[in-house]
Amino acid sequence: MSLVVMKFGGTSVEDPAAITRTASIVAGRVALGKRPVVVVSALAKVTDQLLRAASAAATGDRTGALAISSRLRARHRDTAVALVKNSASLVSLIDEKFDSLDEILRGLAAILELTPRISDLIVSYGERISSRIVAEAFCDRGIAAVHVDAREIIRTDSQFQKAVPQDDLIEKRAAEKLRPLLDQGKVPVMGGFIGANEEGLTTTLGRGGSDFTGALIGGALSADAIEIWTDVDGIMTTDPRICPDALRVKVISFEEAAELAYFGAKVLHPATILPAVKKNIPVLVLNSRNPTNEGTRIISLAPHCKSPFKSIAVKKKLSIIDVVASRMLMTHGYLKEIFTIFDKYKCPVDMVSTSEVSVSLTVDSNDKLPAIAADLSQLADVKYEGKKALICLVGEDIRGQNGIAAQVFNAVRHINVRMISQGASEINMSFMIEEDDAEEAVRSLHAAFFKDPDPTIFDVEARKVLA
Ligand code: ASP
Ligand code: MG
């Protein structure tokens, strides 16, 4: 029987209707003879609100913090009552959790110091409570769900807020605690994102960490597949708001997905699915609002595609910084000095290009730029300009192909290109243009490269329906 980890993000459990949809998706898998382990996020926006409550308390705003908590309590209670017929014990469990959260917030408002450890404890309530509600809602709908506290399985080190999971221990615990449930035909339901260190203190895996939990559990149990349920149909050839004829990418390599995520495609953070990729477990991105759609399959080795690119990403709100020093550039240590300045301001650099006399760098537009420029001007002449956009084309099949660059720049020949780079990974080509030209550039490139899309890789059926 095939074992599948099903991870549902915040929008897939945001309210009673979403949780009901999620239950029928899981029931559908069970009916197919699959054995699911379910990992859920906090209800949509709850993590942000818990963090806001924590920082309010830490700045002495006790009333504000407790008001946020009381709104969250009401939302979770209402959700539970709407979903579960005999909800009294679930509601009192929710009340107990919120009582202890309030206790922590009051303490914090007295101590006025928010440590990463306390922050993790506070934020963990989101997943601890959502997983309880989802498990009960599943039981009410005939699924043999059993709630499992994620902290008993996801063992991590003690780096609060970005804890590193300990794979061996996780594997051992998954074998001890999840496997027997699965063997009895039960459906374990656990929260994502949270774990515990050696002393049993609550940790988190970093924002968006529920995907990571899904991959860790999938890896630990050597699952046959990991399903990441979200609210989009998967990875697209480009942003459908820019190109209404954008197509769903049916299958993509892990490396390609990683490049796209870096350039702002928000579907999931591929680093978090690494535990699955290492074990060759396919990861599927699926839409809980459109569950019959096949989604996008992320695998370690993508099949060959007839067109060079899988997807075009665009990243806006960038600035370009030109550092010009005719005599110094090629001297030893110069680039290091430049990067030391960016490091000092904790400002990540996206793209770098050098010539005999100048270095151009691109960064996210931010309010530290004047200070960075002032520091850089100690070394050389500096100019910076905002309102730039980076266009990034990703595809395994650009490796070693001749003439691709010519085709790309021919497609955008009417647009002024400021900076060019071919990614070190050999699977991306990016270039920088004015932000105002971004949409036009994406449309021209999409028209040029997705005119006759390969049906093994792209969902061309959807386009036929549109036409
Ligand atoms: N709830 C957590 C967050 O919002 C983890 C997740 O949903 O992946 O970051
Ligand atoms: Mg997420």
Give an account of the 3D structure.
The protein has 467 residues and is of the alpha/beta class. The chain folds into 2 domains: 3-231, Acetylglutamate kinase-like (Carbamate kinase); 311-466, VC0802-like (2-Layer Sandwich), CATH 3.30.2130. It contains 14 helices and 16 strands. It has helices at 16-31, 46-58, 62-83, 88-111, 116-140, 167-183, 210-220, 254-262, 274-278, 334-344, 369-376, 404-411, 438-449, 460-466, and strands at residues 3-8, 35-40, 145-147, 187-191, 194-196, 202-204, 225-230, 251-253, 283-287, 296-299, 311-324, 349-354, 358-364, 381-394, 417-422, 428-434. The protein has an 8-stranded mixed sheet, sandwiched between helices. It has a 6-stranded antiparallel sheet with strand order 12-13-11-14-16-15. Helix 2 (46-58) runs parallel beside helix 4 (88-111) and helix 3 packs parallel to helix 5. It is globular. The mean pLDDT is 93. The structure holds aspartic acid and magnesium ion. Aspartic acid binds next to loops.
Strand order of the largest sheet: 3-4-2-1-7-9-10-8
Tally of separate domains: 2
For the record, what CATH class of the largest domain applies?
Alpha Beta
**What is the radius of gyration computed over CA atoms, rounded to a whole number of angstroms?**
25 Å
Helix and strand composition category:
alpha/beta
**Major β-sheet, in short?**
8 strands, mixed
